[in-house]
Amino acid sequence: MDGTRQVPEHLRQFVVSQDYAAYTVEDQAVWRFVLLQTYERHLRSAHPAYPAGFAAAGISVEQIPCIATMNERLSEHAFEAVCVDGFIPPRAFQAFQARGFLPIAADIRTSRHLAYTPAPDIIHEAAGHAPFLAHRDYARYLRRIGAIGEKSFASARDRETYEAIHLLSELKEDPLATPLQRSRAEARVAQLIQSSGTLSEAARLARLYWWTVEYGLIGTPTDYRLYGAGLLSSIGEGHFCHDAAVTKLPLGAACIDVAYDITRPQPQLFVARDFEQLNEVLDEVARGFAFQVGGVYALEQAVISAEPATLELTSGLQIVGTVVELVRDLTVLSAVRLSGGCAVSLLDQVIPDLPRPRDYLLPLGALRDGTPLAAVSAGRLRDHCDSHGQLRVELSRGLVLSGRVLRVVERAGCVQLVLLSGCTITRGDQVLLTTSEVYPWLLAEQVVTAHARPPQGYYPATEFSDTRVPKPRAFTPEQRDLIGLYDRAIAGLRECFGADVVPRFEAIHAALCERHPDEWLLRWNLLESLVKLGQGESLGAALAHELELLELRFAHQEPIATGLAYLREVGLTAKNPKQDPRGSP
Predict the structure, then answer these.
(1) Is the pTM above the cut of 0.85?
(2) What are the residues whose beta carbons fall under 8 Å from the beta carbon of 335, sequence distance 6 or more?
(3) How confident is the model at residue 497 (pLDDT cuts 50, 70, 90)?
């Protein structure tokens, strides 16, 4: 099943193709190293849906998953997978999730950031998020938090934070970036996330998402299991989260009062009773959001956000645009001014062929005689027109609207929309709006509510990207040499078995000592194969010793110790040390 065919047209620009052949043997080794350890550990510590979800999502410990295969499997569980190129805008991410799509970044972290990376990668999104999509309550929560996120108003600070995180992720993986650049970027992200001030709705929801989808625990504070993707996909945090120093708190709406820092381990985590409680907490958090409260409050939040908003009118129509001003007659709201290519929609679908004025004024209230605008009939409207169809109507809140009538749209005997050739709206001697263009006047007594989700058709249709990821990389001679050694190790395992592979590994080891003294991941892979074979005791001892020295050399910043601990466990528990190790390194 090709899930991309169901992607809304305005989101297609973010969908790219996975170029599976672009993964190197080192990329595959990174996937295996992380998954071999996290999967075995999480069989004991994760929610029971985790191992079952691997099969349901088409994921294997042994190799980087094919996103098309994942999509085929997930579509059986009312979710689909789409390949994206790293970070996508938060609005796009929410829209995908609300519609049952899991965006998966096809890039994979480098061996330099094997334990953790702030950039989205296939380990985090495939092995972290996907396994729980087969669980009905969790999948429902993911859809709902996406849908509510679409309606939630963001702020300029939210947009600035997104850009700062995006920059940090790029610098983390850029070999040419300086430590000073990275430290400044980390400090900027921390400053924005921790900064005081009123949190936008989007920021509050982002915190809930972080403490549940990314770093959530389930059960009780003293007896819990992992389900957060950030914990499941991180060798370090998936282990250290069990430390007694990490406070475990019952999940509640108050979790949105707790800021997070993406640059360091979390000092506290929240424990949900079960997946259904996620939906309960989501409802509680969203209860005070603008789209729920409605009225003038929703409009005020739309002004603060300075992003396109959808206004639901008493007539049943919607007007979409950026709310820039609330026009008041003393304390009474008399009109709303919008800008930015305003569109008219019905039932969340833009009405085609209607003009989209750049500057729009929406009068509210009633006619001067008290008839609500949403209850004006075509006959009453004609009473305010001359013989040439020129309309002049006085409204109850001091506004006067005029223009030549081109078309009248009625519903249930009431006028919903009037197309005017030119329109002028005044209040006393003040001209609030004048235009010579065709103008859609929407008759509404009041705005019921406002939210940030645009109707279908508001944004232009886009085509699927022809980008393929991972993108072509330029390797240095040293990197190409190392990849060649990985290839030789794999070829040795395929062509040999048992003790016959040891001489080949010895030659690879000699090359590592000569040309790649700091390379630890290939050494670990060689050692893993020898442990599983039960051969090469002398070479294995040398590799283990070198790995221990590299652990000190890198000041414990690389997960070498956890890799050695895994191998000790494998060596002690393997029932058949002569098993075929093909698939390693």
Answers:
(1) yes
(2) 327, 361, 362, 363, 364, 397, 399, 425, 432
(3) low
